[in-house]
Amino acid sequence: MSLLFKNLRIHQVFGANTDVGKTVLTSALVRASAASGHSVYYLKPVSTGPMSDADDERVLALAGPLSKRVQSKCLFRFDDPVSPHLAARRANEISTVERVVPTDDAFVNAVASHIRHCATTVSSPSHMYVETAGGVHSPTLSGTTQLDSYRPLFLPTVLIGDSNLGGISSTIASYEAMILRGYIVDAVLLFRDEYYRNWEYLSGYFGERAIPVMSVKPPPERHSDPVADSVHTEKYYQEIVPESHNSPIFDVLSHLDQCHTRRIKELDSMPRRTLDTIWWPFVQHGHVKSEADVNIIDSAWGDFFSVYNGRKAQRPASPSSASSSAEPSLLEPQFDGSASWWTQTLGHAHPNLALAAARAAGRYGHVMFPEAAHLPALKLAERLVHHGPGKGWASRAFFSDDGSTGMEVAIKMALRAFATREAGKLGGARRKDLGILGLKGSYHGDTIGAMDACEDTGIYTCEWHDAKGFWFDPPTVAIRDGKTVVTLPPAIAAETEDGTADVPTVSLSWTYNIEERLQSPLAGVYRKYIERTLQKLKEGDGPTMAALILEPLVMGAGGMLFVDPLFQRVLIDVVRSSSDAAPSTSPSEWSGLPVIFDEVFVGLYRVGLPTAHHLLGTTPDISVHAKILTGGLVPLAVTLASDSIYSAFLSDSKVDALLHGHSYTAYPVGCEVAGETLDIIDRLAKSDTWTAARERWNVPEPASERARQVGVWSLWDPEFVNVVSRMENVAEVMAFGTVLSVKIKDDTAGYESHSARALLESIRGAVPSGGDSLSAAPGGSPFGIHYRTLGNVAYFMLSLNTPPSVVREVEGRVWTVLNKKVSA
């Protein structure tokens, strides 16, 4: 990542196979660059085989009299002429001292560091070529295939096609594998074999994709006499790289230069074009003052964006800074601190998810779903209902597009179920006057129905917004000065013995032990308050309450409010016992009011739990799942429902059916990606990283699957949370699963506050690390942090697989910024 320079044009060279002439053609590019007056940098990250055959030395030799313009380097060299992963393994086996095989991160960092070093020596337009080994999927030192190992660097590429028998297939397959991983392929270059004539077919294939194919004659057979071989080789290069510059190699060179220039010009123009064309969500455009306020994302990988900082990079470096680069990168990594609006599960551009999407796209595209089925949808529905969050209570899965539409479906289900059961008590007018019971601060999406199910706060609203229902002001949980505290709203605090709003608890884990707390005095206070409030609502002239909707545990958009789970559990219990009919003893039969869990945000391990109902100790009648479901790759939502909810729509009349749908219902690509995502999450749940995180939060390795589903823990370090909670300008902190929420002390607290944004603004910029140390970002470059705020609340969010090294560095950046403000 972040390796784009104004004066250093870099291309990575991949081969469609072994023995396709990759080094020969790369050498021709090197020679042509040098002949055009450029300084040239050649890098062979990994070399296997005897030194006499080393490509980095051979490239220098093939440059001939132009070699003085060429700098050549190999980073990892092994004598064994086998695949790099085998060469590294065998080197350990025969060595008396064990050699540590570089991890993918260490390998990429080494490549990136060398490229950055070369950039410091550039004073005029120069060229660099990074030649890989073998084919596109040949393993690197760790065993990861080259396409995946090099992907964090996101270098534009040249593909060396295969001119041999079967080469058409291997070249196209290599190209498609590169496209699946997001690579930019600028050109295809291969030998002009007059018998197989692969270049003819490939020219048409790639021409349709606006990628030029250049072909040159193959080199002569190697001569047994080294002197004669050298003469023949030099003659060959003089033919394909002539002094006249009239050859396909120079055409390729010119095209690559144009691609480089065009990419930079486009990035530089994007801020202005964006301000002229785009209407952003949740942004007051009146506050966007200049092009510098537009965050231009060139690519993304793992937990990081690669963002354009061209104007900043083009400023002269400080002469006092010995480590500053004479040629700074036009891109820099930026940590995706909101997990891209809470969608990212496994980081950006995960190759397994991209392949899953391609699998379904190639097999189905999209297909009509009513009265039909396809395997991705069926398998996902069965998994969610029988083995996932619906296990034990749900019987059906309804597919829709995103969280908001999934909630629209849930509301329709609940209202119909209530109206059907209460048909004898509801007249025609009353049937249309139904309300929702919920919590203040709730948010269920921006479609009209989902908005109407929330209190009208003037924030997430529109002119048609007609809030229908009643919303309890909920108690919340937070860590203050290192202690876990439950904060009661005034109406509930007034009912306690001492009338205080802040109730210290034994510990965070005890606070989330619902079964134990159900016997506490506070549970009795909650119960009496809820019962009395519901009785007043029943006696009033407002709408008839027809459903209870909760965001379990955490209300995200409302300000990262960690609701006291005891209050939510007691509320559910009271609501279910409030009906005139006897409460049902079956988890698939609703009583009182249908209960909807909006788990779009918290579900599927976002807060460290597979589903919130395990911790709450009670199941919903309807639940909604999205965001993490598809790993952040494509939109998809699933609404799960119990059999009694489903039965409310059964009759002989079509108008009684759930007449709700979306053109892309059960989108096969989304369903296939969801299945792949859930497979990976299952493995993560048992990983060493999660086990270590649970141990840091004093959650022992569970002896049973049930224990795994209720432990309260986070990927954020508990000591870091403790320290931040004690800072002067921090009101409170909470960490749960991937989520870190920091509430800033602010007298004008609320969504319209700018305190959190102002306090953390400097964290957006990349901060160089001291000395030669590398950051945790891909390639080791200094990185900024992209974050979102909710008024006086700043939150940071991880993927489920964010490396601990990245988490620790982000923690350090957050602490440093907060500490500087305190010191100031």
In terms of structural class, how would the helical and strand content be classed?
alpha/beta
**Strand order in space, largest sheet:** 3-2-4-1-5-6-7
Number of strands: 27
Classified by CATH, the class of the domain at 385-476 and 487-686 is: Alpha Beta
What overall geometry do the principal axes of the alpha carbons give? elongated
Mean pLDDT: 91
* Strand fraction: 15-25%
Helicity, in percent? Answer: 25-40%
Q: How many distinct helices?
A: 29
| Radius of gyration, in angstroms, nearest whole number | 31 Å
Return residue spans where pLDDT drops below 50 for at least 5 consecutive residues. 315-325
Q: What is the CATH H-level superfamily of the domain at 385-476 and 487-686?
A: Type I PLP-dependent aspartate aminotransferase-like (Major domain)
Main beta-sheet strand count, sense and barrel state: 7 strands, parallel
Specify the CATH architecture of the domain at 385-476 and 487-686: 3-Layer(aba) Sandwich
What is the terminal-to-terminal distance? Answer: 34 Å
Task: Write the CATH fold name of the domain at 385-476 and 487-686.
Answer: Aspartate Aminotransferase, domain 2
